[in-house]
Amino acid sequence: MLEVQNLYKVFTGSEVLNGIGFKVEKGEVVAIIGQSGSGKTTLLRCISFLEKADSGRIIFDEYENDITKVSKKEIKNLRMRMGFVFQGFNLFSNMTVFENVMEGLVTARKMNKDVAREKTMKVLDKVGMSSYADRYPGELSGGQQQRVAIARAIAPDPEVILFDEPTSALDPELTGEVLEVMKKLAKEGTTMVVVTHEMGFAREVASRVVFMDKGVVVEEGTAKEVIDNPKEERTRQFLKKAGSKFEL
Amino acid sequence: MSERLIGILTSSFLKILIPGIRVTVPLTLLSFALSFVIGLLLALVQVAGLKFLSLIARFYIWIFRGTPLIVQLFIVFFGLPSVGITLDAFPAAVIAFGMNLGAYNAEIFRSAILAVPKGQTEAAYMIGLNYPQTMARIILPQSFPIAFPSLFNNLISLLKDTSLASSITVIELFTTTQQIAARTYEPFALYLEAAFIYLVFSTALSALQRWLEKKLVWESKSGKSDKGSGINKAMIG
Question: Which end of chain A offers a freer environment for a tag, N or C, measured as fewer CB atoms within 10 Å?
Fold first, then answer.
């Protein structure tokens, strides 16, 4: 459904993408794992055009183009078909929880307000945040903010949702509630790409696990294959280091 | 204090206060409104990265910050008539003050807009907003509370600077004081009186500022923990 091919991105810093190819099919939950600096986040940000890739191709169903030649309008259209959940939540601090979720429906998609309100309540219910509808983001815990951010991302029914380390900015006791919501979405058949350090989550929920290192995919397969029986030495080393989390 | 002096001060008080209320206050508010619009426009074209308009904005700011306010007043009121543009003193003052302060407000708006975390823009783009929508719905509402104290500071400065309008024949608070001082030969007492009335006005503005800030603070505060924890932890992780 959504695919990038031969993607290159060089930063002045350390993180790079070295001709990576990546694909997600409808209904899949793909977990991308790898060390900090392996390019996982950059991959997600290039797919969503938050970073400009140096070269490569992007394919989204019928749409195919050189990723550096996608017009502004096309970028907007492609983004409308994606949801994005940030590490730092990025809820709009000038808006209430309700307004945060409704904004994309009404302002961007010109949805009828009554329909949008109903939809907003429905997704807030789904993430267990409907009783906080009138609060401002600053009044919520990190876990609550991230659940609202997930509601905001799923409200327009995007075809795929990209999660960029959704629990990395949370205190350990708050990651559970966010992972629960994500599990629920996965069960409903939502197409998800999740950059994560949560090996337990990857193992339990992901239909496919992708291990990245130095800007390329080193190994991919089912969670069993990649996490329990890694073929590549680099994957093994990474999992050993991540072992403590993996045990949880 | 002699009885004569007390008599002059009491009889002049209203004579100074009334043009203060009738002229100085509207002159301040109108000029500020103009400077607000100019400042916002100059800031927007710069942060939008519109190359040619940015260049014009930089040029504008360079000119208006780099030359004295009183010279700008004289150019607008005494100078423009020679190229066929004759303005009354009051509108001339509004234009000169507004255009001058616009250059300063532009910098305030620009830095306030840039102070809104980048994640807010990214999130707005990802829910499908375009640039103007992002600016209008997300970024500007968040930059106003940031810009507010500095803007208000400029408003209070402007209130005092409007006394310069006396030099282009606007009959405002200070002009009236000068006239009475010349008539009564009591410059010391009368200029102190004028200073006192300016002080009353600016104190009222300061009080208004504190009151408005309290109303705004809640809104900006509600976003603080989001920004703080998000950014710090992102850096660690």
Answer: C
> Which chain A residue's Cα is nearest to B141?
A94
Q: Is the pLDDT of residue B1 over 80?
A: no
**Among partner residues A84, A93, A104, which is closest to B223 by beta-carbon distance?**
A93
Q: In this structure, which long-range contacts are made by residues A18-27, counting pairs with CB atoms below 8 Å and at least 24 apart in sequence?
A: A18/A214, A18/A215, A18/A216, A19/A56, A19/A215, A19/A216, A20/A212, A20/A215, A20/A216, A20/A217, A21/A217, A22/A47, A22/A210, A22/A217, A24/A160, A24/A191, A24/A193, A25/A1, A25/A191, A26/A1, A26/A159, A26/A191, A27/A189, A27/A191
The position carrying tokens 């400009």 is A52
Residue B101 CA to residue B63 CA, distance in Å, equals: 12
**pLDDT tens digits, one per residue of A174-224:** 999 999 999 999 999 999 999 999 999 999 999 999 999 999 999 999 999
Helix (H, G, I), strand (E, B) or coil at B82: helix
Chain A residues in contact with B234 (beta carbon < 8 A): 87-88, 168-169
| Chosen from B216, B226, B229 to mutate, greatest number of chain A CBs within 10 A | B226
Domains and CATH numbers, chain B: 3-236 (1.10.3720.10)
- B78-82, B104-108, B180-184, B231-235: lowest mean pLDDT where? B231-235
User: Is the pTM of the predicted complex or chain greater than 0.95?
Assistant: no
Q: Is A206 left (phi over 0), alpha (psi -120 to 50) or beta?
A: beta
Closest residue on chain A to B144 (Cα): A94
